[in-house]
Structure formats: structure tokens, C-alpha cells
Amino acid sequence: MVDLVGLTKEQFNVSKEKLDKLNEVDQIKQDRETALNDLESFVLNVREKLYEELFEKSSTEEEREKIREKVITIILISITLYLFFLSKIFMVKCSFYFQNFSAPNYLIG
Fold first, then answer.
1. pTM exceeds 0.85 for this model
2. Helical pair 61-99 and 9-49, crossing angle rounded to 10 deg
3. Domain assignment present for 38
């Protein structure tokens, strides 16, 4: 049988704060990923439409090329934003863990 020691109110509150912060970071990540997925779906939909017969008949090759270029630009921007976002999440989580890191006594000396 394992003896469980209860947390003090202060320890509980600190732990709850940590969990709330991590949940907040995870929610932000999920919201951004959803937004980026929506943007990617939109871009792919536009790109598909460029090759539909109706669109080809009602636009010039030059107009379609301009749209293709804008689609590529949007894709590159969204990839850049996604990578930037991932780096921010990584930094937040690292700072959170290091902020709450306690080195073992044998490392402190």
C-alpha cells in the first residue's frame, strides 16, 4: 500500500495554475491549427477551381496565372506562420518547464 500525502492549499493552487497555463497554451495551439487548416482548405479549393471548365472559359490564362501566384504566396505565408507559431508554442512550454524546474540537490552542490 502506498501512503499518499495530500497537497497543501498553496501546492494545489500552484499545480492548478500550471495546468491552467498548459491548457491555455494547448487551446491556443488547437485554435491556430484549426485556422491554418481552414486557410489551407480554402487555398486548395481555389486552386482546384482554376482548372474547372467553367472557370477556364470565363477567365484568361493571365488572370488564372495571377490567381495561382497569389495562392502560392498564401501557401508560403501560411507555412511561415505555422512554423513561427510552433516555435512560439515550443518557447512557451520550455520557459514554463524551466521556470518550474527544481534541480536535484546533487547537481546544486
1. no
2. 170
3. yes
Q: Output DSSP code: residue 11.
A: H
pLDDT in tens, 49-103: 888 888 888 889 999 899 889 888 888 887 887 778 777 776 766 666 666 555 5
User: Cα dist. 82→21, 31, 44 in Å?
Assistant: 21, 12, 17
81 phi and psi angles, rounded to 5 deg? -60, -40
State the residue range of the domain holding 41. 29-88
Alpha-carbon distance 41 to 47, whole Å?
10
Tally of domains within the chain:
1
Are 81 and 33 in contact, with CB atoms under 8 Å apart? Answer: no
Asked if residue 78 belongs to a domain, the reply is: yes
Non-local CB neighbours of 75 within 8 Å, separated by 6+ positions: 40, 43
Residue at 108 is within a domain: no
Q: How deeply is 81 buried, as exposed, middle or buried, from its count of CB atoms within 10 A (0-12, 13-18, 19+)? A: middle
